[in-house]
């Protein structure tokens, strides 16, 4: 009987121990309540006041600068070095009567550019000065004859027929017709000695003309 009581007590003690463990069990952690985040009020965009446009004051009117035209390059040629030997050959030509009157026409420009022929004509007349075979028609006589035909004193006759017509007007027996042709940077000088009465060419020659530095 004592054993029975003892077994009963053991069962009761075990039940009490189990009951105490259940009662001491940890209560579940309370769920944290999520509070809503209050919305921030929208800040209005600051209004920038419009700055009125100030009309620009008209500045001083700039006067356009006058365009200065470029000075054309003046070419200079060594006419004398070419004309002297040519004139020497012409004076030795057959059919030339010493003492005859010679009309020297102005040198004509037949090149591909602008050419100052006054210097060439002056050099040609200089090469014939004191030649001992021809009497030259003076520049004054030639100018007067041109005016009688309605030509400018500076006008080059330009053709053999005009040159012969002028020569007859001044009672010349010979005409020296000359022109510069080819490239204006290195032209070729051509001369022809003609009889006024028949228009026959009794001598012709040519030579290259070099520019001077």
TrEMBL record:
<keyword id="KW-0133">Cell shape</keyword>
<dbReference type="GO" id="GO:0031241">
    <property type="term" value="C:periplasmic side of cell outer membrane"/>
</dbReference>
<keyword id="KW-0998">Cell outer membrane</keyword>
<dbReference type="InterPro" id="IPR014094">
    <property type="entry name" value="LpoB"/>
</dbReference>
<keyword id="KW-0732">Signal</keyword>
<protein>
    <recommendedName>
        <fullName>Penicillin-binding protein activator LpoB</fullName>
    </recommendedName>
</protein>
<dbReference type="GO" id="GO:0030234">
    <property type="term" value="F:enzyme regulator activity"/>
</dbReference>
<feature type="compositionally biased region" description="Pro residues">
    <location>
        <begin position="55"/>
        <end position="69"/>
    </location>
</feature>
<feature type="signal peptide">
    <location>
        <begin position="1"/>
        <end position="24"/>
    </location>
</feature>
<dbReference type="Pfam" id="PF13036">
    <property type="entry name" value="LpoB"/>
</dbReference>
<comment type="subunit">
    <text>Interacts with PBP1b.</text>
</comment>
<comment type="similarity">
    <text>Belongs to the LpoB family.</text>
</comment>
<feature type="region of interest" description="Disordered">
    <location>
        <begin position="32"/>
        <end position="72"/>
    </location>
</feature>
<dbReference type="GO" id="GO:0008360">
    <property type="term" value="P:regulation of cell shape"/>
</dbReference>
<keyword id="KW-0564">Palmitate</keyword>
<dbReference type="GO" id="GO:0009252">
    <property type="term" value="P:peptidoglycan biosynthetic process"/>
</dbReference>
<feature type="compositionally biased region" description="Pro residues">
    <location>
        <begin position="38"/>
        <end position="49"/>
    </location>
</feature>
<keyword id="KW-0573">Peptidoglycan synthesis</keyword>
<comment type="function">
    <text>Regulator of peptidoglycan synthesis that is essential for the function of penicillin-binding protein 1B (PBP1b).</text>
</comment>
<keyword id="KW-0449">Lipoprotein</keyword>
<keyword id="KW-0472">Membrane</keyword>
């Amino acid at each position: 009987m004592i054993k029975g009581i003892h077994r009963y007590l053991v069962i009761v003690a075990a039940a009490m121990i189990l009951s105490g463990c259940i009662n001491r069990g940890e209560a579940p952690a309370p769920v944290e309540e999520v509070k809503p985040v209050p919305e921030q009020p929208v800040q209005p965009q600051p209004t920038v006041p419009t700055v009125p446009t100030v009309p620009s004051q008209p500045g001083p009117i700039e006067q356009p600068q006058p365009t200065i035209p470029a000075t054309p390059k003046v070419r200079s040629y060594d006419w004398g070095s070419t004309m002297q030997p040519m004139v020497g050959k012409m004076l030795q030509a057959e059919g030339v009567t010493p003492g005859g009157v010679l009309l020297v026409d102005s040198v004509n420009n037949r090149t591909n550019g602008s050419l100052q022929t006054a210097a060439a004509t002056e050099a040609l007349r200089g090469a014939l000065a004191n030649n001992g075979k021809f009497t030259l028609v003076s520049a004054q006589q030639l100018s007067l004859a041109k005016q009688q035909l309605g030509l400018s004193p500076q006008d080059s006759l330009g053709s053999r027929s005009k040159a012969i017509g002028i020569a007859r007007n001044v009672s010349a027996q010979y005409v020296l017709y000359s022109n510069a042709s080819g490239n204006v940077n290195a032209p070729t000088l051509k001369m022809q000695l003609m009889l006024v009465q028949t228009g026959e060419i009794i001598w012709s020659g040519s030579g290259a003309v070099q520019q001077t530095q």
